[in-house]
Amino acid sequence: MAVVAFTFASCNNDDGANPTPRTVTYDVNGYEASGITGKIKFTEVVNADSVSVLLTLNGQDINQYVHFPVVINKGTALEEGEELFPLGTFDGGKGSLQKAVNISYDDLVKLNGGVTIYSGSADKDVVAHAEIGVNKTFSAFSMKTVDGVVNGQFRVYKRDTGSYLVIKVDSIGNSCQGMDHPVYALNNNEQDTTLQINPVADQDLISTTELPNHRYEDLTTYGGVLNVYCSESNTLSVISKGKFVKQNSNQ
Length: 251
Fold this sequence. Notes:
Helix content: under 10%
Largest sheet: 8 strands, antiparallel
Number of domains: 2
Number of strands: 16
Strand content: over 45%
CATH architecture of the largest domain: Sandwich
Shape: globular
């Protein structure tokens, strides 16, 4: 009888145990020359389909960064897709931003999403990114004009079946507007490869390409370049070039 009573009491205690909330933290990387870095931490709210978000940023004169909108967007952060969850505005004087979001922890870690931090100006320039969910493993590479001026970025993301490539160009010049811009992958000898990249769309200056047959580890150590040209009829004019030399990564 004593053994039975003890077992029954033990089961009751186990049923009342509080599970430990799960957490995941992603790096925040500055876009272009902003110099902003930081962390964004998601903590499971137990017994609720929601998470608590804590964003902390660092950088020179970070106290001057006020009213910076922060959102979770659909797709990679570089694509700046549809807004899924607004996180409010970051105020450098407070040092951090905390927010509750109505998404389960399990859905969050599987989300094809990113976090975008904009400047407080009317044109909403991007100052920093965080890749989250399935986009957590990536490598970033600078895009530059032929004169060496930074003109965007491209990122390679790890997928279960291979890689996902996103190119973002900041500007193309007036003479190249109104048409999509082909992208060619060249090896170190400046010869075309078999890597087929979708053109940079003229509307948003973004290119996205699924590369299921190209391993992430191989593509991120590829020795060549990506050239973005003015148009199919004008491949002598390179509007942006990216070399596979890592700017930053989260692996």
